[in-house]
Amino acid sequence: MPSHGITERSPELVLQRRPFGSWLLGPADQSPKRLRIRLHVLLTVFSIGTHLIGALVTFVLAVFVLPGPSLIDQLQLIDAIIIPLYFVFAMAVCYVWSDRLVRRVTRWIDLERPATRAEQIATLQLPLRLTLIEALLWLGAAVLFTGMTLVLQPENALRVALTVIDGTIITATVSYLLTEFTLRPVAARALVDSPPPRRLLAAGLKARTVFFWAVGSGVPVAGLMLAAVLTLIEGDVTTTRLSVVILALGIVALGNGYLLTMLSARSVVAPVRSVRDALSLIGEGRLDVSIPVFDGTELGSLQAGFNRMAEGLRDRERIRDVFGRYVGPGVVQEALSSDRLGGEERYVAVLFVDLVGSTELALDRPPTEVVQLLNRFFAIVVDEVDRQGGFVNKFAGDAALAIFGAPAELADPAGSALCAGRELARRLDEELPEATAGIGVTAGIVVAGTVGDVRRHEYTVIGDPVNEAARLSELAKSAPGRLMASMAAVDESAPEEAARWQPASEVTVRGRSSPTVLAVPHRL
Description:
The protein is of the alpha+beta class. The protein contains 18 helices and eight strands.
């Protein structure tokens, strides 16, 4: 059963169940053995069915419909034996010849390796080569039956020859479309690493469409013209007989036109629909989409182009994700929206956290152990800062600078920073008892923006609160709880957070001329 919001008609389920446009062709990841069996069955069924129906229609038209002396009255026992015997012979030859050709051209599938460029071209030309085999056998039938008619019934030779040739064209065209349909999974494997070769795009979609139109419309019209010519030759065709001839040929023309148009349209719609369904998934944010390229015309280039586009989007998202890990998602968005140097004044809260005794840690422990400790420390810092909507602007050795309110605005930057400081102090005490850190929090006006050179940017904040937060973290290292804030930040925070803090002493920290009223939490 579909799950996670996937419906029976969802693009994801369609691409999974019908990657080649039909469930008959199986999944994209079927084994070479299953693919070989599927090809064998479908090619055999389509070949026998197409040629059996084509032969019956051609026989009925030649014997019962078209004007001229009756063939059925003059049909001899030898004809009744040779006609079905040749059909069986032709189908046997077609089966063996086609099977050997398919196995030889697609042997790279059994070897489970990518197709070479030459094998790609041979694979995409396989439907045409198989159709030429069938057309050759049909032309053999035209020569054989026309020769027999010339010997036994010369007056009917033209009717038999032209009818069989018309049947050859129509049947071979239908067979080509069905063969191309069957070989889509093979074409997809051949084109998995590269688009269709340009030399195959010369005929292209336009030429193929014109050809199918000509066969679907021109050949039936030629049949009607043949009927008119035969009527003029015979001369004494009754109105009723002529009406039956036109009606029968009209039915055949409509059926042939519908069948060829439907098969041709499906061959065009299938790759377009695969791109449409994949685009729907891309629009939903599913960038891990790839569609099989199974068409040798411009439509195959369209499918390959979509896959290149999806790969480019994945690379872009991967770069954006990596970039975000270094500078923060908010800075990434700021960089994408504007690449100008400079900044703006913003009211922000600043949290500075610094490990106590990092020099002794480096002397007493192996470097790898120190790095592991720092990573655990920074993981807790990033987790709590992100939880409160801030971002870590810098990692400086064993210290970290976090900003709340820039580049993304916050409703209560001071409250968010104070809450992050309390939770960070609590978690470091519980989860990292082997190391202690001083945490300082303050708030004020800073200049936030991009500094550096046009070749190398960095998003940063500059101002007195940054210096004050660093000095408060130094004071906090020797204070109970290892957490200290300025009352300026507490006064600017929401009442709920402000109630968790109380004023302490007043000090003038290094680098500042005005005193700072300190604040400490009631309890962590």
